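Ticket closed. Logging final result for TetR family transcriptional regulator.
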Amino acid sequence: MTAAATTPKGERRRAALVEAAAELLAEGGFDAVRHRAVAERAGLPLASTTYYFDSLEELVTAAVEHHGQTELENGRRQLDDLTTRNRGVQATVELVLDMLLGPQSGDPEADAEAVLLRYERLVATGRRPYLRPLMRTLSQQLNELLTEIFARSGTPVAKDELDRLVALVDGAVVNALIAVDPAPRAAAGRMLRTALAESVH
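Final structure:
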């Protein structure tokens, strides 16, 4: 980060670039995050991307971190709402799916496309070694939040069980995507509800 990024104006510009890059990442994957595209989305000069970031990798890393932390913050807010209102299994399942697949928009086709993009992005992350330390950190934070969600919902799970539930969701989603199922979230929801029902009984 350059010294200019530590001034109020610099911080605002850098934040705008990071937010723009995170939006592009969510919409089109890593290939969508390019200096020119980020600058245009942020409404800033092209040179600003190289002024505030030493490399495209640094910009991508900041975008991934911003996107991940935003989702975690949204999840924590939803968890607070869940524990004060509805603690039923369905509410728990929906919150877990929000954390693993992203929130629903109300448009089934758009939601299915968003899930596909999400999994493409996750797979592509593995081809970028520079992201591995950040992804480990985000994954740990996500697992901690999921553990808290299950605990506050009255169905506490151990680490091994959490890993199994996440794997079930991932498997259901991938199978649905392979079968060109228009509702991968619904498939994952059915699998998760069944698994939770079995763990209760």
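The mean pLDDT is 91. No further action required.
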